Amino acid sequence: MKAGVIGVGYLGKYHAQKYRAMEDVELVGVADIDPDAAQAIAKENGCLAFTDYRELLELVDAVSVVVPTSYHYAVALDCIEAGVDMLMEKPITTTVAEADEIIEKAAEHDLILQVGHLERFNPAVEAMLPSLTVPVFIESQRISTFKNRGVDVDVVLDLMIHDIDIILNIIKSPLETIHTVGAPVVTDFTDIANARLIFENGATANVTVSRISRNNTRRMRIFQPGSFINVDFANRKVTTLHLKKNEFMANGMPKQDIVVSTFPKGDALNSEILHFVENVRNRTVPLVSGKEGRRALDVALQVIEQIKDHQKLGVYAEDMSGR
């Protein structure tokens, strides 16, 4: 299989390395508008360098698209025109309308469109799935220290969209309402946000993200009838608590079986790209197809829009008007 990478910035260079190391995959080339970056990554991986990605599309079967989100739509259309399968980094596009169009066109041309929601390939996430029954309440926290990267977008698209994707995948009910709060603190975009997602079946998810903390925390707690699951993403650990029927402690609380599972450090990006390669070879539907990427984007954009509406009326707007 002949592969390429479009965009070799911080994340794209790792895509190139993964393809280069895979058996039965030839990394033909990389493309970037920065010629120095393209040449450096090409030299490192023994492949061709391009500043015009359309020249690369003529030589490959599949590509990773790792350019800024605002360029996803245009690059996707060129990939479809060239008949090239795509692993599109998240979010899929900047608008739902753009996502709908590339999903439809990719399907018309029988092309693979996979969206890079990396956390789906986190060993801890994969390990919790067999323990899920009917989640009724989910609490998610994704808190990180400030990094001068990815700050050209809202923290909802930067971080929260990961958890939105996971939650929409495990709650098998349509989303009914969204309640949000959020604020810009360091950048011109929202840096800290909370969203409460309420589903038609009554399940609720409370999602908090921040990129201005002094510490890093990534965890999800899932409550369901008779059991509780705590997922520690950063430490790849899953704690599952099952309540015993008809067995009680002295205080009346049901006795519990507690299972703690830990996993060695994995390589989620490598697993994601391997999954993409298998889908290209076998013409199978990705775990995170365009449909799932579009669904997560839709909810994320609703969260962003609601936060903006609140900011226009709230304390932040008053503060800005007084400067």
Automatic annotation (TrEMBL):
GO molecular function: nucleotide binding
Residues of the GFO/IDH/MocA-like oxidoreductase domain: 154-223
Matching Pfam families: GFO_IDH_MocA, GFO_IDH_MocA_C3
Residue intervals of the Gfo/Idh/MocA-like oxidoreductase N-terminal domain: 2-117
Source superkingdom: Bacteria
InterPro entries for the chain: Gfo/Idh/MocA-like_OxRdtase_N, Gfo/Idh/MocA_Oxidoreductases, GFO_IDH_MocA-like_dom, NAD(P)-bd_dom_sf
Coiled-coil annotated spans: none
Protein name: Putative dehydrogenase
Organism this protein belongs to: Desulfocapsa sulfexigens (strain DSM 10523 / SB164P1)
